[in-house]
Amino acid sequence: ATREDGTPQRPSFDDEFAELRAEMVRDQIEDRGVSDETVLEVMYRVPRHRFAPMVSAERAYQDSPQPIGHGQTISQPYVVAYMTERLELEADDRVLEVGTGSGYQAAILAEIVDEVVTIEIIRDLAESAAERLGRMGYRNITVLHGDGYYGHEARAPFDAIVVTAAASHTPPPLVAQLRPHGYMVIPVGRSGWIQNLLLVEKNADGEVSSRNLTSVRFVPLTGGH
Ligand code: SAM
């Protein structure tokens, strides 16, 4: 896709770690059942190591979360791929992410959809993610500093919402900002414990249902709510 001025909306990458990414996609993601070709392709394309500057590139491609500072993490590759697949994204979607962290999940989303809004509560992380994504060439991601519990009313409704921190309950403002036929994926449960990864669906009449997909372990959703 290109913007009106002819510059590409998304960057292209060429780096020495493509082989590590191919292994990551095959062994950690495809072998565990993620089958959406678009999701597999973008997980192969996006240079994850650039979002995890505190660890070596080799470690960035391992089957686990990695530290990004401020006690926060970039999520495990499989979890990013799995959550992305469950959103059933379309190319013209607008997606909200709560918990920008490194910006990696936002980049994965931005490779698939038109527009991504992502909110991060730790100012330093919001600023460094915005700077990193800008430097890498992403033009369709807006990084906001704030409490994502309240979503972002100004750009609502969203076709899909992904929350990458564990909440004690599904935030009503996020449900309100989800478009009919939209999916939200959110870990819900006690922080410091295993949480349920919920798939929340809003039907055409605005009725909301949710079901448990699997167990996950995320850092807590903080904030004043
Ligand atoms: N998606 C991130 C990535 O790709 O690197 C990983 C997210 S990390 C597991 C969770 C993030 O959620 C942390 O950066 C944390 O500061 C942020 N967070 C926690 N509570 C939040 C809130 N209420 N609003 C926005 N961000 C929040």
Automatic annotation (TrEMBL):
<dbReference type="InterPro" id="IPR000682">
    <property type="entry name" value="PCMT"/>
</dbReference>
<keyword id="KW-0489">Methyltransferase</keyword>
<dbReference type="InterPro" id="IPR029063">
    <property type="entry name" value="SAM-dependent_MTases_sf"/>
</dbReference>
<dbReference type="GO" id="GO:0032259">
    <property type="term" value="P:methylation"/>
</dbReference>
<comment type="function">
    <text>Catalyzes the methyl esterification of L-isoaspartyl residues in peptides and proteins that result from spontaneous decomposition of normal L-aspartyl and L-asparaginyl residues. It plays a role in the repair and/or degradation of damaged proteins.</text>
</comment>
<dbReference type="Pfam" id="PF01135">
    <property type="entry name" value="PCMT"/>
</dbReference>
<dbReference type="GO" id="GO:0030091">
    <property type="term" value="P:protein repair"/>
</dbReference>
<feature type="active site">
    <location>
        <position position="75"/>
    </location>
</feature>
<dbReference type="GO" id="GO:0005737">
    <property type="term" value="C:cytoplasm"/>
</dbReference>
<keyword id="KW-0949">S-adenosyl-L-methionine</keyword>
<keyword id="KW-0732">Signal</keyword>
<keyword id="KW-0808">Transferase</keyword>
<protein>
    <recommendedName>
        <fullName>Protein-L-isoaspartate O-methyltransferase</fullName>
        <ecNumber>2.1.1.77</ecNumber>
    </recommendedName>
</protein>
<dbReference type="GO" id="GO:0004719">
    <property type="term" value="F:protein-L-isoaspartate (D-aspartate) O-methyltransferase activity"/>
</dbReference>
<keyword id="KW-0963">Cytoplasm</keyword>
<comment type="similarity">
    <text>Belongs to the methyltransferase superfamily. L-isoaspartyl/D-aspartyl protein methyltransferase family.</text>
</comment>
